[in-house]
Amino acid sequence: MSEFELLAQDLLEKAEAEEQLRQENDKKLLGQVLEIYDQKYVAELLRKVGKNEWSRETLNRWINGKCSPKTLTLAEEELLRKMLPEAPAHHPDYAFRFIDLFAGIGGIRKGFETIGGQCVFTSEWNKEAVRTYKAN
Fold first, then answer.
1. What domain range is 20 assigned to?
2. What is the pTM of this model?
3. Which parts form a coiled-coil structure per UniProt (predicted)?
4. Residue 64: is its pLDDT beyond 90?
């Protein structure tokens, strides 16, 4: 093999590794968003900003590894990141720690985080409240 053929092969391997890492990160980001929002809603939003044909079924197959992964466009990735809640203002320098029992939708947690608290444990049994809690 010539020097350029070796270089081309090396560049191809690096590009494939970077693409795989990006797809893994995209899948992780999408998984975090789907813990909060339902698949149909996320697919509708992705269709509005991206070039890919998104549907609830497509998202479900992708997350469950039943189809080849897509690479998110920059607009799709930015949308998903903005759908996630921001870190508390005092992160990581918290003034105190607390637990959030019977958390509901997270009102007490929001208040404590606003004054510098770090939630170390949360308990809520209602699955719809949990989704709202994660969104907050």
1. 3-83
2. 0.71
3. 1-28
4. no
